[in-house]
Amino acid sequence: MNIAVHGRDFKAEDKPLVQQVFDELSINQINVQVSESFKKILGEAEINTHSDKIISFKKPENIDIVLSLGGDGTFLETVSKVGASEKPILGVNFGRLGFLTSIQPDEIKPSIHKLLNKQYTLDERNMLHADSEIALFESGTNFALNEIAISKTDTSSMIIIHAYINGEFLNSYWADGLMVATATGSTGYSLSCGGPLVMPHSENFIITPICPHNLFVRPMIVSKNSVISLKVESRSNNFLVSMDSRAKVIGDVETEITITEESFKAKMITLEGSNFLNTLRAKLGWGRDVRNRINSSAVEETS
Known about the structure:
The chain is α+β, with helices and mostly antiparallel strands. The protein has helices spanning 15-27, 36-44, 72-82, 108-116, 189-192, 276-284, 290-302, and strands at residues 2-7, 31-34, 65-70, 89-93, 120-125, 128-132, 143-144, 147-151, 159-165, 168-182, 204-212, 220-223, 228-233, 239-243, 246-250, 256-261, 266-271.
């Protein structure tokens, strides 16, 4: 089996866990390639990768699986590197929340064994694609797994975003911004802006305003087949476009951005024993009543 590994800076206390990943891969005689940026970080941290091979994500023919070491942000960056090759990705969570990264640090060894024994399924997720008359990001990377967002820059006042669905006018949003999220992204930025939770394979997109001044606008769920067009008005004559973990300031407010479904998908590895509903309960704390802890503390103080 050939595995590529990508990651970003990690905490000093996570160093033994990162080393454990590479040790387990080596023990199981897996051919390992590491991304160039992560290789440098690992070298500075004195991590032994047991391999000198560097992965070229532009030509990943000799790769079966990609491991993402970090949080959800690292996972999204890994998706942007894998792109149209659709190589399966498995996330090891060294971050905080970890909706996309299914392996917890204490599960590294058994998870790698499940991987080797093919005790997993491939979970295909729809993604978003953006088109514009000007260059947004590097050619071939104008896609996102979680969301594509338009927002004001740090120093600008509120912007106006005129939104259209399949050529028909939807609304003019006076807001800090507007995002189009996938079902996968419903647990991310969209959720924090009041968007709904959507089952991953619902094949819908969510239009969610960011801090709207139109008090009665609400997030809207639309079909994945929708063509969503966005036009911006801004006093500062610029705005920010972000796709997952990437962002760019656009200085041409005449630019129209069209968002559609991407032609390829993100393939996420789900190990046996994992599922979306379990993740929701664990990450969002469903079923945990803080009143129980408060009452227990009160009893202890009075006893």
